[in-house]
Amino acid sequence: MLTREQVLEALRDVKDPEINRSLVELNMIRDIHIEGKTVSLTVVLTISGCPLKAKIEDDVIAAVKALGAEEVHLQFGSMTDEERAALSAQLRKNQGGQTHNMTPGQAPVLNPILAKDSNTTFIAVTSGKGGVGKSTVTVNLAVALARLGKKVGIIDADIYGFSVPDMMNIEQRPTVIGETILPVEKQNVKVMSMGFFVEDNSPIIWRGPMLGKMLRNFFTEVHWGEELDYLLLDLPPGTGDMALDVHTMIPQSMEIVVTTPHATAAFVAARAGAMAKRTGHEILGIVENMAWYEAKDGTKEYVFGRGGGAKLAETLTCELLAQIPLGQPDNHPSEPDYSPSIYGEKTEIGQLYIDMAKRVIEKCGEAVKQ
Ligand SMILES: Nc1ncnc2c1ncn2[C@@H]1O[C@H](COP(=O)(O)OP(=O)(O)OP(=O)(O)O)[C@@H](O)[C@H]1O
Ligand SMILES: [Mg+2]
């Protein structure tokens, strides 16, 4: 004979996929009734249109059937505003179990990923000017790191010019529980972007200080679920306010500087690199994007010039991490998990990103050992 306690015990292992905590612990399981081998229960979701409802349903049914139940009747409900607020408070309280101060005199930061003892490696992707491929490099490096089994997040820190949701084809919106935001996951990468909070692609008209605040919120209000190995930041072009904010907010961040192969582009990118050095950010290396175009007969055409990446690496005394040729991902909207800007794992450019990710892991390992 099945008991309520057994059912609860079995469901202790079923996690809410977004929050990454047990449904039982989150008080999401209610009204358990057992009649012979039939179990009925209610799962109270954080929001009524929870995008991961189907996954929760499958997991709960599987767990209860594993106990020996023959039939499982599931009903779904959604939390009240009070319950959501309580859950939000609980998540904040339990994020690492304590609050952390970044620097004395500043507001406490609730998110432990920013704490000094956090194991998350921050990598800001930057460049001197726009359109060189920062966002493309960010999303592809993130996916490559995830393909290598790492836990990865992206913060699209380009608050005005956000592009990560489109590049990854994310249509889902983040779940907001009280004041806590849960990132959206795509291709095993957790993503947070201002684009999730803007209706109809309307322009954002906030000024500098507001932008910094928004970025800070991405660190303090976002519940990443589990400790990330890597958190990549896609920075806006140039060496403006936002770049400075990142420097002050995450002094331990490393940087990847993206450039095109043209000598003047490298010269401009050197400014971004110089700023990183001044603020003490370690430069992990240079990515030369749009390095060449490979014609059908295999010859390389250096349409945007040549040597910019190597020159920049020399100027900043760091490594040229990768040279990525021109080429669009050959993905089709009918594929599952389609995204327009992510190169397939088996493609030539996809492999270049895997190599880059391996080198990044190696270099960060080195950095940790020192
Ligand atoms: N290797 C490449 N081959 C072909 N197209 C590319 C490559 N890298 C980037 N692109 C394209 O170039 C454009 C600019 O890239 P992306 O948006 O990544 O640059 P960005 O530096 O983030 O720009 P911004 O400064 O506006 O944020 C995009 O349309 C992108 O798809
Ligand atoms: Mg960009």
UniProtKB/TrEMBL annotation:
State one Pfam family annotation: ParA
Kindly indicate where the leader peptide sits in this chain: none
- Manganese recorded as keyword: no
**Which residues bind ATP per the record?**
128-135
Keywords linked to the UniProt accession: ATP-binding, Hydrolase, Iron, Iron-sulfur, Metal-binding, Nucleotide-binding
Q: Which domain of life is it from?
A: Bacteria
Where does the MIP18 family-like domain lie? 4-71
Lipid biosynthesis in keyword set? no
Question: For this chain's UniProt record, which GO biological process terms are given?
Answer: iron-sulfur cluster assembly
Q: What's an example of a GO molecular-function annotation for this chain?
A: ATP-dependent FeS chaperone activity
The entry's family comment says:
Belongs to the Mrp/NBP35 ATP-binding proteins family.
Q: Which PANTHER family match?
A: IRON-SULFUR PROTEIN NUBPL
Q: What does this protein do?
A: Binds and transfers iron-sulfur (Fe-S) clusters to target apoproteins. Can hydrolyze ATP.
Q: Subunit comment for this entry?
A: Homodimer.
The record's section on HAMAP family has: Mrp_NBP35
Q: What is this protein called?
A: Iron-sulfur cluster carrier protein
Lineage per the UniProt record: Bacteria, Bacillati, Bacillota, Bacilli, Bacillales
The UniProt gene name for this protein comes to: salA
